[in-house]
UniProtKB/TrEMBL annotation:
Positions that bind CoA: 327, 351, 541
Binding site for Mg(2+): 555, 557, 560
Function: Catalyzes the conversion of acetate into acetyl-CoA (AcCoA), an essential intermediate at the junction of anabolic and catabolic pathways. AcsA undergoes a two-step reaction. In the first half reaction, AcsA combines acetate with ATP to form acetyl-adenylate (AcAMP) intermediate. In the second half reaction, it can then transfer the acetyl group from AcAMP to the sulfhydryl group of CoA, forming the product AcCoA.
Family statement drawn from the similarity comment of this UniProt entry: Belongs to the ATP-dependent AMP-binding enzyme family.
Annotated source species: Gordonia jinhuaensis
Xref: Gene3D superfamilies: 3.30.300.30, N-terminal domain of ligase-like
Gene name of this polypeptide: acsA
UniProt-recorded name of the protein: Acetyl-coenzyme A synthetase
One Pfam family, short name: ACAS_N
Gene Ontology terms: biological process: acetyl-CoA biosynthetic process from acetate
PANTHER family, per database record: ACETYL-COENZYME A SYNTHETASE (PTHR24095), ACETYL-COENZYME A SYNTHETASE 1 (PTHR24095:SF14)
InterPro entries found in the cross-reference section: Ac_CoA_lig, ACAS_N, AMP-bd_C, AMP-bd_C_sf, AMP-binding_CS, AMP-dep_synth/lig_dom, ANL_N_sf
Region: Disordered, residue numbers: 1-24
Domain AMP-dependent synthetase/ligase: 96-494
């Protein structure tokens, strides 16, 4: 596949003169000249994949070298870097201090109410050591599980690293989840310790958090029996009614902060479990995705270096995800810190106290590398370009996108308004299960197409196949599969090997491929386009149409800020396309005219078969707390069904607004 282009420039001169939009964006010669990655990275990986991964693994410090790169006869249960021993936390902290980089800032922490802290690698080492000493003092041992239910405070990262240091397996539960969700995760993992805060700031107001832990852990007969201790970080200092269970609850200030900052680490087996991260499946019970040490750290570290073109000591990296999601694990904690990066950790939402917040942070800290989700880009679009335009964003040199397909309009807006047509964009496809980025351009190498994740990274092998496992022709939709194991792959579902095999490996069992659950297609140049979850692919009169494609077309209409599309059951066509759209600020054309304009826009942009049957103009879309649109619920609305489970929604009241628009 020809995806490499090194010499052409990506100046405005490349823009077609007939007014149509630019289709391909080659890297600029200036970026190419300084890029970490070159085309030879693909060549090395293609020549000998396992040797390539061994080279990447040696970016880390191993206390005992590995003697086998991959052990796969027991597929789908993989072992990577067999025989090797390392300490993940020492790779993220100690080794940078030992190399004389202790005074470098690891974390510029920005609190929601405006407070801030800068934490150097030396200070991080002290903090991690203190927590490790305290955890040892209460009897925790390698292999025990620790639940972390915290907002984005530095102690959350310190706790994750202290667990890694001791071989404790952490399970971070997003602090926006309910007490019920926390309880089911604590029980499933049989966590002995829960680390939390007294409260958290949300839109400038303190809200209790420890209270949810108390509710989750219960009392008497209903008490979560595995939990021995609850460790509480003081954050808001504002919960006059806070409950305190003597003998179970302790303050961080009285315990960790009083412990010794000296701690000798021990090395653990490459396959020692590092963390569990729960993700929702098709059935009600969340799956505890298991990740281990050596392979996970190898691939997060490698991808951080090459995909984000990280320059040690110069770059300031900012990933906008929460530590409650895999993106936060891999690109707020393990990827950046294993590379000795300086990064931003921001506690709040993008519009507190106002919509300028992110751009002020970029300006103040000189952020060079900015990695966010398309939903936030579209929100910025909705707020309007005058907001970013009023800030100096000249420090930025690379932009990233993750979490969902990015529509070309949002991609171009991101590149133009945030990146000033200077910064390459890396659209990174991956999942909780894959652990690190898998399909993405390499900046300085790949000529990118807006909306395409382009190609598997060096060392990764993917394919798009039909029902029988045959590679699809360009333009045809198929299943995205990973046909070779990769170092940061999930090692299983906690306590449920059968579900692991069944969920990911049964669709193409004969071939032994991992089925990711996403649909994708190649274009005529071989670039790979991820179309979204397979259950988001509609079937209208026998034609397969991706919700993402229709959404992308709708967002291409000048009046539309954001769109969600679902396939609703239709007696004649199988499914009918129903769209929900949010308008941009300042659109005052009447809705009837707009709706008919939008329908013909989609018809022209994709094909008449993709023309929505129904378009609803709504004030909000139902989103999960990680920013994914809950199409399942929109389908219920469109089909007039009882609403399914709304517990993971940010704002369950959006439905009243949506329903009132439809009636
Ligand atoms: C990292 C993360 C995984 C699902 C995945 C896919 C969607 C993520 C994407 C993307 C298109 C991208 N997804 N990145 N789709 N282009 N660049 O988001 O993990 O929360 O487990 O979600 O997200 O559908 O299967 P996770």
């Amino acid at each position: 596949m020809q995806i490499v282009s090194t010499t052409e420039s990506s100046s405005p001169a490349d823009a077609p003169e007939d007014g149509s939009v630019q289709a391909v964006y080659p890297p600029s010669p200036e970026f190419v000249a300084q890029a970490n990655a070159g085309p030879e990275l693909y060549e090395h990986a293609d020549a000998d994949r396992l040797k390539f991964w061994a080279t990447q693994a040696r970016r880390l410090d191993w206390d005992t070298d590995f003697d086998q790169v991959l052990d796969w006869p027991d597929a789908p249960f993989a072992k990577w870097f067999v025989g090797g021993k390392l300490n993940v936390a020492a790779n993220c902290v100690d080794r940078h201090v030992a190399a004389g980089k202790g005074d470098r800032v690891a974390i510029h922490w920005v609190g929601e109410p405006g407070d801030s802290r800068d934490i150097t690698y030396s200070q991080l080492l002290d903090e991690v050591s203190r927590a490790a000493n305290y955890f040892t003092s209460i009897g925790l041992e390698a292999g025990d599980r620790v639940a972390i239910y915290m907002p984005m405070v530095p102690e959350a990262i310190v706790t994750m690293l202290s667990c890694a240091r001791l071989g404790l397996t952490h399970s971070v539960v997003f602090a926006g989840f309910s007490a019920t969700a926390l309880r089911s995760r604590v029980d499933d993992a049989q966590a002995k310790l829960v680390v939390t805060t007294d409260g958290q700031f949300r839109r400038e107001k303190p809200a209790p958090l420890k209270a949810a832990v108390d509710e989750a852990l219960g009392t008497g007969d209903d008490a979560a029996e595995s939990v021995e201790h609850v460790l509480v970080v003081r954050r808001t200092n504002h919960d006059p009614d806070m409950n305190w269970v003597e003998g179970r609850d302790v303050w961080w200030d009285d315990t960790v902060a009083e412990s010794s900052p000296k701690h000798e680490y021990e090395a653990f087996d490459s396959e020692h479990p590092l963390f569990l991260l729960y993700t929702s499946g098709t059935t009600g019970k969340p799956k505890g995705i298991v990740h281990t040490s050596g392979g996970y750290l190898t691939q997060t570290s490698y991808t951080f270096h090459y995909v984000f073109d990280h320059k040690e000591g110069r770059d300031v990296f900012w990933c906008g995800a929460d530590i409650g999601w895999v993106t936060g694990h891999s690109y707020l904690v393990y990827g950046p810190l294993s590379n000795g990066a300086t990064e931003i950790i921001y506690e709040g939402t993008p519009n507190s106290p106002n919509e300028h917040r992110h751009f002020e942070v970029i300006e103040k800290y000189g952020v060079t590398t900015y990695y966010i989700a398309p939903t936030l880009i579209r929100t910025f679009m909705k707020w309007g370009r005058t907001i970013p335009d009023s800030h100096d964003l000249s420090s930025l040199r690379l932009l990233g996108s993750v979490g969902e397909p990015i529509n070309p309009e949002a991609w171009r807006w991101y590149r133009d308004v945030i990146g000033h047509n200077r910064c390459p964009i890396v659209d990174t496809w991956w999942q909780t299960e894959t652990g690190s980025a898998m399909i993405s351009p390499l900046p300085g190498v790949t000529a990118t197409k807006p909306g395409s994740a382009m190609a598997p990274l060096p060392g990764i092998s993917a394919n798009i196949v039909d029902d029988d496992g045959n590679k699809v022709a360009p333009g045809e939709q198929g299943y995205l599969v990973l046909d070779q194991p990769w170092p940061s792959m999930l090692r299983g579902i906690w306590g449920d090997d059968e579900r692991f095999k069944d969920t990911y490996w049964s669709r193409f069992a004969e071939q032994g491929w991992y089925f990711a659950g996403d649909g994708a297609r190649y274009d005529e140049d071989g670039a790979l386009w991820v179309l979204g979850r397979i259950d988001d692919v509609m079937n209208v009169s026998g034609h397969r149409i991706s919700t993402a494609e229709v959404e992308s077309a709708l967002v291409g209409h000048h009046a539309v800020a954001e769109a969600a599309v679902i396939g609703a059951t239709d007696a004649t066509t199988g499914q009918g396309i129903v769209a929900f759209v949010i308008l941009r600020e300042g659109i005052d054309t009447d809705h009837e005219t707009l709706i008919s304009e939008m329908k013909s826009h989609v018809s022209v942009d994709i094909s008449p078969i993709a023309k929505p049957r129904e378009i609803n103009i709504v004030p909000e879309l139902p989103k999960t707390r990680s920013g994914k649109i809950m199409r399942r619920l929109l389908r219920d609305v469109a089909e007039g069904n009882e609403l399914g489970d709304t517990s993971t929604l940010v704002d369950p009241t959006v439905f009243e607004a949506i329903r009132s628009q439809r009636s």
